[in-house]
Amino acid sequence: MKKIIAVVCxxxxxxxxxxxxxxxxxxxxxxxxxxxxxxxxxGPLTGGAAIYGQxxxxxxxxxxxxxxxxxxxxxELRYEDDAHDPEKAVNAYAALKDxxxxxxxxxxTTKPALATSQLNFEDNLFxxxxxxSAVDVVKGKSNVFQMCFTDPNQxxxxxxxxxxxxxxxxVAIIYNNGDAYSTGIYQTFVDEAAGKNxxxxxTTTFTDETATDFSAQIADxxxxxxxxxxxPIYYQPASLILKQCKDVGYAPKFFGVDGMDGILTMxxxxxxLAEGVMLLTPFNxxxxxxxxxxxxxKYQEKFGEIPNQFAAxxxxxxxxxxxxxxxxxxTADMTAEQINEVLKVQFTSMTxxxxxxxxxxxxxxxxxxxxxxxxxxxxxxxxxxx
Amino acid sequence: MSFLSHLINGISLGSIYAIIALGYTMVYxxxxxxxxxxxxxxMVGAYVCFFALNAFGLPPVVSILLAMLVCTVLxxxxxxxxxxxxxxxxxxxxxxxxxxxxxxLQNGALILxxxxxxxxxxxxxxxxxxxxxxxxxxxxxxITIAACIVIMxxxxxxxxxxxxxxxxxxxxxxxxxxxxMGINVNRTISVTFAIGSGLAAIAGVLLCSAYPLLQPTTxxxxxxxAFTAAVFxxxxxxxxxxxxxxxxxxxxxxxxxxxxxxxxxxxxxxxxILVLLIKPAGLLGKKTVVKV
Amino acid sequence: MExxxxxxxxxxxxxxxxxxxxxxVFFGFIEILQxxxxxxxxxxxxxxxxxxxxxxxxxxxxxxxxxxxxxLGHAGFVSIGAFTGIVIAQVLRPAIESxxxxxxxxxxxxxxxxxxxxxxxGIPVLRLRGDYLAIVTLAFxxxxxxxINNLYIGLDSKGLHFSFINDNLRLLEDGKKILSGPxxxxxxxxxxxxxxxxxxxxxxxxxxxxxxxxxxxxxILAMRDNAIAAESVGINITRYKLTAFxxxxxxxxMAGTLFALSFSSVNASKFNxxxxxxxxxxxxxxxxxxxxxxxxxxxxxxxxPELLRSLRDYRMLAYSxxxxxxxxxxxxxxxxxxxxxxxxxxxxxxxxxxxxxxGGEG
Lengths: 386, 292, 362
Known about the structure:
heterotrimer, A: alpha/beta, Rossmann fold, 3 domains, seven-stranded mixed β-sheet, five-stranded parallel β-sheet, 47% helix, globular, B: mainly alpha, two-stranded antiparallel sheet, 11 helices, 2 strands
């Protein structure tokens, strides 16, 4: 075993010196004539949640390329992998700091964002996360903003929607109780549902480990006579639930949240399964407005896929930063702290129009106000719900 | 009626665990190693079948055979490059290498086939409705159960009757003695890997037919569950893997249906612990008596 | 498991000193980097986690390498320690001003809680052998994860409140949530420091070396090498095994506390099978029963994925290839033989040099 030790010792020393060296080189580079503003971000580029991180990284890059082509302010984007893990996200964040990031897009998913947003706050490094939706991500951190709805916002909006449109009287909920996003929406939904014109007759859960077979959950909803199933979950397990409901001949109404977006663009998905599914989402890839068409076209050309709402949120984040930088006369030679102060003021005062909503504003807590759009899936596409 | 329906769902889930567990137990029985990469070979099999069906439009049977072929070759390559040089190494070193192979396959799949989930096409269309439609059984379920039984019987016959099978059993009993008897142990182990990987392809196709969601991480959780099932039934034992898989599936569904979906994971593992405490070598495992 | 290398009890004083020295040199090296402003944020942020992983690896080495039992649920004990430490730190934070003292109390609490659970789990589990023991520890790890993932803990002026599965804490106005189910614990005080981490590593090393040198340690090693022979000379196998297992859990719990209190946000899903396997990789790579090896392997493999960041998408692929390559190289008979030969040559060279030097002086 000594052989290993000797070899490993050598490598260790080597690696430490490499880290040390890279450290001493990096800050020097950014001190020189800075012509670009460095935007850093962390997201899951590998592992089970890679689909979200990659969508954000791709879309943000499109936005950066577009802005750079305009010739004015120049951006440089860097996504570091956090594998949907808070510990690795902290490392990724540190790597971004070493790189010299002046602005960040926070973290893509909630759990890592809870860890990195605290660091953003302490370091006075501005962050706007495309999609980390828990309240705790922004709460008490004056320089951390969200582009997506917060979980409570979605939970209450869903309950209100179901009640006001009288979509169902007996509601079943299936949520992921190992996931912060899903549990967050579930809890506020239940609070809001109290006293409404529907009752919750079945509540069942799953975790990432058991997200294959949903027969027991579906049976519970069916046996309790639920006529609407609320699915505050991501689209991958949702696609399995829809399939398995069809197999047992159970056809209630389905109501999802923004995590449901993306279900139609899954390769090989049978859109008839999702016929009539309702969801709250800020983004519709089928929309015919110029901005969306242009974005979807570019994304498809470059990456061969139809972008989901994560991508749209990340795209908007970059443009929101661009707008704030322009309004606040941010230049590339400013430090992260200086930019932070300017953007904080801009974001709480400006109005932004993007792919995911018109006239967006942010409150001092950093939460966005935009209207969730109720959509219903018809003939394999979204149609606005009145 | 709901009891019967849960039971069938449990058997259906369990038979998928069982097929994966059969692959695990085969390799373990002969090579005495926990092949943690088995779950990821399943994922590769499913992807190959997916692309054969969707991109090349091959008929299902050809696609499945192609998946089996690719997985068998993959299994042989992995065995040759990663496991064979470690024949004399401590078993834990092989375990770590298998974990490395598992990471490799997952991340390779991520780069090759992207992270976007794919929906596996329906190969076996149709359902059977009994008792005025109160009980539905999918054709996939029936085929999975049938495939599982056929494979189990086939493996039992293979290891019991054929020359290669006998060589495998000899290797599993005592490697050194097997060498003395003129058995090519290296070749026997390679053949075992080939068979195990071929089975993995079938398991992948069946897994994704029943639960049509395909991602680079698709194989890892069923892999661990199947490993649990194999130990549950008595690792190394072919009927044990079958029984362990089926029971694990039933327990999982029943725990969800009758106790709590929140704690179903904990309940499944609790049952496993209790069983192993009563029968320390698994349900059908051989009790080894250590002699001085 | 049958081919574990013989662990020589006759560890010389010098061997131990080298191990302690290695930790201190690393500490000094980092401090110099820090003082001269050459420490990257990336490495700085990893210092405490490295210490935590080192301690986790050392504790698992006690179970796997020294006791000779394969455990796949070590993250469960780490998790118990982590969340106990979090609760203690959050409850006592207003009362104790010194971060060091607070960390010390949290560490002790986390360790004791994990040790207690380890003891309770050990009673039934240690009756099993080999892979069956492995799968049962895996099962316990998953159960612990699942339970903590459903646990809600809140603190207000009336004291601690607990709630299970659903959030029914009903805290008063002044209350705050310490643990909220799958969301985990947020807004934690990051009181773990590098110096605290190094001290914990040194304490663990001292503890383990003392243990191995004691009657208990000798009994454990005798048991691992030949259980039946050990039993026949009157060693109470179950009792000693349980003691070692409990100690392993105790140390793992402390590592968990250190780990958790270096982040502002921690959740139970982090402590899953993958983490247990990661710690096992450290132990196997460093050498079973080899404490110094565990330290180096844990440190190195924690830093490695971060060093590979420049490879972007191919990062984890490269990591897996390196992992496989290391296992193949370190277990390659020809290379190992070649290396032992070279080492002998070197040793001979040194002895000759020393002799000639002495001769010259004389």
